[in-house]
Amino acid sequence: MNIKHIFFVTLCALSFSASAFAAPAEAEKAKAEPTSVKPASPPVLTEDSLDKDIRSLREQIAAAPADAILQVRLGYLLLKKGALDEAQTVFTEALKLNPRSHSAMTGKGIIQAGKGDLKGAEETLKAALAQNPNPVRTHYELGVVYEKLGNLESALQEYKEGIKKHQQGRK
């Protein structure tokens, strides 16, 4: 592990809160909820609660199959579970329903990177930022892709942009 990698990891760990990594649709929901009392730490998702949430979203999607937001939420839960192929299918469906969904594009880019398609991930994440330049997570994920590609200057630029957006209160 080289010093630049350690710097990037430390910079990200110090600069991003757990809320920066929430699924974009969940972040919007959190904004709308009362904030008088906040838990000290985010709730821990157990395998059982994750499966329960996935089942619940599948039921909601069955009742409203054209709801791209529900598809995106399901995609991020599947991503948390590690079900990349299933998440990819869900994000693809969300993009059919709403081709401009930056949240679905970000999810698709995360999966591409996870499967080793770094150039595809770069293109997808850049397309997501073209739709909406504000999501902190998209900047972070693009920074990770650039770092894996060995483009440390671009990685640092994306990390800085993500930090800047986060400090502006964007999610």
Structure commentary:
It contains 9 helices and no strands. It is mainly α and 171 residues long. α4 runs parallel beside α6 (102-114). The protein has helices spanning 3-15, 24-32, 47-63, 68-81, 84-97, 102-114, 118-131, 136-149, 152-167. Mean pLDDT is 82; it is low at 16-22 and 25-39. Helices cover 73% and strands 0% of the residues. The protein has one domain (3-9, 46-167): Alpha Horseshoe (Serine Threonine Protein Phosphatase 5, Tetratricopeptide repeat).
List the secondary-structure elements in sequence, H or E. HHHHHHHHH
Please work out how many helical segments DSSP would assign.
Answer: 9
Give the low-confidence spans: 16-22, 25-39
What is the annotated CATH architecture?
Alpha Horseshoe
Round the mean pLDDT to the nearest integer and report it. 82
Tell me the domain tally: 1
Number of strands: 0
Share of residues in strands: under 5%
CATH superfamily: Tetratricopeptide repeat domain
